[in-house]
Amino acid sequence: MLNKISINLKLILGLSIVLSLIGFLLIFVLAKSFNIYLFLIAIIGVFLGWIFYEDETAKALLFAASTSAGAILLLIAIFLFIRGFPAFQRDPIFFLSGSTWNVYRDIYSLGPMIWGSLIVTFGATLIAAPMGVGAAIYIGKFAPEWLRSVLKPAIELLAGIPSVVYGFLGFILLNRAIMDYFAIPNMGQFIAPSIILGFMALPTITSVAEDAIDAVPEHLEKGALALGVTEWQAIKEVTLPLASSGITAALILGIGRALGETMAVTMMLGHKTKYPSPLFDIFEPGESLTSLIASQIGEASGQAVDALMGAGLLLFFIVLVLSTTSRIIQSRLQRRFRRG
What we know:
The chain is mainly alpha-helical and 340 residues long. It is built from 14 helices and 2 strands. Helix 1 (2-30) runs antiparallel to helix 2, helix 5 crosses helix 8 and helix 5 (111-142) packs across helix 11 (244-260). Mean pLDDT is 81; it is low at 1-5.
């Protein structure tokens, strides 16, 4: 009987700690207020639990830490939905496809920004996809060990460069070089951020694609070589088809990386909230969803804040779908190789 009471007390203590921490986060994010009483309850609960039930308290804290990422994601989704959904309620078709963004007349539509994001992301994918997959194939299959130990960290280091540095280099060097070479009178074209984002997405695509290529069992490729094909033919006919799911996941992650980039795009684009004419003119200045939010959120008020929150909600949903799709594809690839 005493053991059951002790177990129940430990369970109640652990749940109270976790629920107090989650409740504190909910109130802090949604109500935008610091609840000192709930915070003190959580701190006192942790303190007492650590004294009397150290193991169970440690497990509860580790559980709270492991679930914090999911809780924060849920809170972000709830916050964006509450603040951004009103922008879609007024006229969702016009909000998504219209061509007018006028803060003085309170007319807001994301059409030009959605189109700008598509142009920039598509251009970045055209650059990053062949370079990233090609680099993954060479590093995984052809590079000697000493060269692989140099190339792989060098490519991964590209992900560690701050995006503001990419944006600065793109604005100072690439934008001006494009203006001089093509004799364009204005800065902020779509082509410059497309090139920069291509290099920013390169480490993601290369790393994930190489992992997918390395996951292919070696005996399948050796079997093809035993039949008399060349090394490249074995890679082309055996390795790449089997790793296609992982490579697809790498491309999806790269697209999500390019689509969600903010600082570099904000620094390079011309912030013109209109469709380019013609639509596929990559030398026109424009705007993307991320650069729109970054450049206008500081001075926005009223309906403009709702519209920007709606743009954030749209971006969040798109990137979430891309990331989820990538994870599903990767898990299917892993299950396929486990089954042999």
